[in-house]
């Protein structure tokens, strides 16, 4: 009975160490993925920053990049601690994983908080951005509007008729909207309102809100996914650490260089 229990214990420790090594490889991959997601959020935010004034929305992205960098270090510590069967290393590994896990929980909470604020932020700022449009490439709000209309296939705030209420429309006096409102399949489109079928029919406000919410969901799902992986890592590290500390048979395996 004692022998069977010992065999089962060694089987469990071997499985835990194997899973730990595998998880450390996942942590390295996760580090790259999280840094990519964080960078993607920054780049996308730069394209839409005129529609979204609250810079604190970037906090989840900053944390995600920091976590990604930390995960690379965690993977290195975990591999060394698992291979060398270091109690101190395993304890440090588990403690850092716990810290990262809690940090990712904060990311999820912040992500949901800022995701809920997206619509109010866009509604508050989009009217101002459109009112500042002057149609030149040297003007940042104008570039932002043209970029969004081309990328999201939209025109105006709610639809193309919103351009009638802008200063640019009144000053240009040509009864047309920016050519960025033109559908790419239409040749020689000049944006004139007498040919509305050539223009994008959907407004930009709803699409900008949808895009920004999608970006925030990427951050939330990335944090949730890797937080669950880290929970498994903490569990395996604790199993190996507890067995190494309390199991005499396991100590004997270590001292005789016969690793499980």
Automatic annotation (TrEMBL):
Native organism: Takifugu rubripes
Listed SUPFAM superfamilies: Tetraspanin
Cellular compartments per GO CC: plasma membrane
Keywords linked to the UniProt accession: Glycoprotein, Membrane, Transmembrane, Transmembrane helix
Assembly and binders: Interacts with claudin-11/CLDN11 and integrins.
InterPro entries: Tetraspanin/Peripherin, Tetraspanin_animals, Tetraspanin_CS, Tetraspanin_EC2_sf
Localisation per UniProt entry: Membrane
Official protein name in the record: Tetraspanin
Gene3D superfamilies on file: Tetraspanin
Membrane topology: Multi-pass membrane protein
Transmembrane segments: 21-43, 55-78, 90-114, 215-242
UniProt similarity note: Belongs to the tetraspanin (TM4SF) family.
